Request: fold
Amino acid sequence: MLRNAVGENSSNNRRDVKVVQYVLNQRLRSRPALTVDGIYGPNTQGAINYYQSSLMRQPDGIVSPYGKTIKNLWPVRYSNPTGKAIRTADAYGEGHYGASRGRRTHDGADYISQPNQSIEAPVSGKVVRISRPYASGVDANVLQGVEIEASDGTKCWVWYIEPAVNIVNQVVQAGTSIIGKAKTLTNRYKNGITDHVHVRIHTRYGSPVNPETVIK
Reply:
């Protein structure tokens, strides 16, 4: 969620400051809301200090990437993005993690969807970029997705959607935030595929995670 630290004697890059301001506002409802403008100043620092005073014995006034403060401000949570089951066998195989794909295995989980249904964030974090499962052709522009980074560095790719307008750099909450709308796959796969949203998860260090073990 953060590229660099925010707080005393830190980089205080605008995008990082905006993230910290936003999540502080969500957690410190009893305090006057910060202006989410990405400008670091005494109000933002005061809110950091106030939050840390109840979190740790020796507050350092800094919100670091992957550190205790950001992980407490925006915990890693998961949710089913479509509210539907994982795709079972159809003409193109099955949608569970590890399903056969010929010479390889399926690296994510496919959650059944209906075209144009709203898709919720499967993990809490920040949308860091638009992600495209196909590099060229019509489908590269039609069947898009997003990449979400959680506060602990977990990365999640959600494919076969039309991303919401201005979704990049937005902080999202699992099961609440709408990240886009589902697209049909029948134009690419002609012979009976079940429409679905593909979810792929990796740890901060690149190790794959079975979505079924965290999305309940």
Remarks:
- Residues 14-27 form the longest helix (14 residues).
- The chain is about 15% helix and 25% strand.
- Residues 24 and 61 are 13 Å apart (CA to CA).
- The first strand starts at residue 6 and ends at 7.
